[in-house]
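Lab notebook, bench 4. The sequencing result for the construct came back, and we need a structural model before the next group meeting so we can plan mutations. Quick request posted to the team channel:

Model the 3D structure of this chain.
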Amino acid sequence: MIWNYARFDFGESYFRDISVIDLILEKMPVSISLGLWITLISYGISIPLGIRKAVKDGSAFDVWTSGVVIVAYAIPGFLFAILLMVLFAGGSFFDWFPLRGLTSDNWESLSWPARILDYFWHLALPLTAMVLSAFATTTLLTKNSFLDEIRKQYVVTARAKGLSDRQVLYGHVFRNAMLIIIAGFPGAFISAFFTGSLLIESIFSLDGLGLLGFRSVIDRDYPVVFANLYIFSLMGLFISLISDVTYTLIDPRIDFERRDV
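Done. Here's the predicted structure in token form:
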């Protein structure tokens, strides 16, 4: 079994006439799309917002954005997804977005610009439902991390030397404050890639790995269950390795050389 798994030979599904690896490869584009875009969007919102909240700590901007972030975090993603479907996907109000799938039926016949638009058209509602609460934790983590660094002595020294607030913030504080954010990236990506997208995949009929893993557990399709666990474990290890390497790129003080005590 270990030798087979090392060669990514997981056997065949008990309930589908297809090899497990082919089944996983078939479902992977959907999960990659959701996981990658939700991570990029949430970090793209969280980091600038967290920095701004740290700079404006205690101001009206900080107070009302904290309220918005906490309320957004408290709303379950699947309930918000259902609301979006009712409002914008042919429910009782507007029919602006597709109800299911990652692409349209005529996707193959479309031009490349039209394919890209069609792809994001289908992703609009699922990503909106997932991003609602995805950026809350990272935003507050970024704010607190920057606040801790801003209050340190080296920041006071840099300001005393005549550096502007922007130079201090992005030239000195940014690299140190971002270390804790980078440390949480692997967990955030894996969560968005698998666990976080399970209900969204089910609601919007997106046939990805999250839905595949859930159905395989219900059906007791053990080869698919073990293959999912194996692949996601490898992904977690690989992304953690990338995270450790990124530490050294951001902060030169961190290295992996052996020290003799």
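The mean pLDDT is 79.
Will bring this to the meeting.
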